[in-house]
Specification:
Shape: elongated
Structural class: mainly alpha
Order of helices and strands: HHEEH
Number of strands: 2
């Protein structure tokens, strides 16, 4: 009879978990299933695949519903802001020609400008002063 030494029968499997705090419930369940005995772990793995598929489907639907709500809220807010600024201003003034008024149409959105600063890149006048190199 041959005698086995403990070093010949040594086999050990381990799983490395990098960040246990960020591990999801699904990952924990999968790890637990892998630890079960062979006939049971195959059955559980197969059944859990359906549960996992259902879970991700519901998660995507829930996330998309939240995104749709947020986009609707943002769109309503933008419509309120644009509605105030959309109305053009029509001014009618008399002109030199009889029965023909002068119309001016202004839109506050187009006319809205930032205040000009005192410093600018362009020269203050249209004429550029070039010094005479021979003086």
């Amino acid at each position: 009879m041959s005698k086995k030494t403990p070093s010949q029968d040594f086999s050990f499997e381990f799983t490395v978990i990098l960040d246990k705090e960020k591990e999801t419930r699904l990952q924990r369940i999968k790890r637990w299933i892998e630890k079960q005995t062979p006939p049971l772990n195959l059955i559980l793995r197969h059944l859990f695949s359906y549960v996992e598929e259902w879970y991700w489907k519901r998660k995507v639907e829930q996330t998309m519903a939240e995104v749709d709500k947020q986009t609707d809220a943002i769109q309503k807010q933008w419509e309120k802001e644009d509605e105030l600024n959309r109305q053009p201003i029509v001014e009618e003034e008399p002109s030199g020609v009889s029965d023909l008024p002068t119309l001016s149409i202004r839109n506050p959105v187009v006319e809205r400008r930032t205040e000009e600063s005192g410093t600018s890149v362009a020269p203050p006048s249209t004429q550029i002063q070039i010094p005479d190199p021979w003086e």
